[in-house]
Amino acid sequence: MRRAGPFQWLLRLLAVVGFLTLIVIFTPLVPWIARTLAGSWNDTQGDTLIVPGGSEMADNFPGPNTVLRSMYAVRAYRSGHFRRIVLLGKSVGRDMQLLLLSEGVPAAVIETENASTSTRENAIQCSRLLNNTPGNNVLLTSDFHMFRAVRVFRKAGVRVSPRPIPDILKRSVAFRGRTDCFLDELTEFAKIGYYFVRGWM
């Protein structure tokens, strides 16, 4: 039996990639993964709203999920239950604060942490900021990020209830955006594995 040459292997690889791309684009796989990682879907209320920063674009401009988390934080505040909002992230915390202020959230309500650069550092810095402050803490973050984030915060000693927002669920509505969403999910799975191995969640 003749062995497949390099060209045949390349064709097979391209066929697999093409098939996977079709599945990603034309099936509900991407939103299903996002819903699974989000867990229970509800607008949890509490005293302190914790919002980790997300992506960042060129020129220190906040990325799409950072803006989305900020705007959903505004919505949560307007519901009238939160007395304190903690924004986390060295590179995006200040941008998130400006977005909240521009939407009418009082400066006295907002607390910004500007040292953390990862979800684990978010959790550690948040633990120091809250310092066993009484009340209910609610963690607001992207759907695909919630599975890891809520476990990391609890591991760091921050008692939180999840309040996921539809990040990938919004972006994946358009077929052309599903490939990027799937790559975000693959990256998140890699981070989940890494955090699990390190004992951070």
Top keywords for this entry?
alpha/beta, single chain, Rossmann fold, five-stranded parallel sheet, 201 residues
* Order of secondary-structure elements: HHEHEHEHEHEHH
Share of helix, binned: 40-55%
The helix/strand class is: alpha/beta
* The CATH C-level class name: Alpha Beta
Spatial order of strands in the largest sheet:
3-2-1-4-5
Quaternary structure classification: single chain
Overall CATH architecture: 3-Layer(aba) Sandwich
Please state the overall shape, judged from the principal axes of the Cα atoms: elongated
With helices defined by DSSP (H or I, 4 residues minimum), what is the helix count? Answer: 8
CATH topology: Rossmann fold
As a percent range, the share of strand residues is 5-15%
- Cα separation of the termini: 50 Å
The largest β sheet comes out as:
5 strands, parallel
Question: What's the count of strands?
Answer: 5
Could you report the average pLDDT, rounded to the nearest whole number? 89
Rg on CA atoms, Å: 19 Å
Topology readout:
Layout: H1 6-26, H2 29-38, E1 48-52, H3 64-78, E2 84-88, H4 93-102, E3 110-113, H5 119-130, E4 137-142, H6 143-155, E5 161-165, H7 168-171, H8 178-198
Parallel strand pairs: 1-2, 1-4, 2-3, 4-5
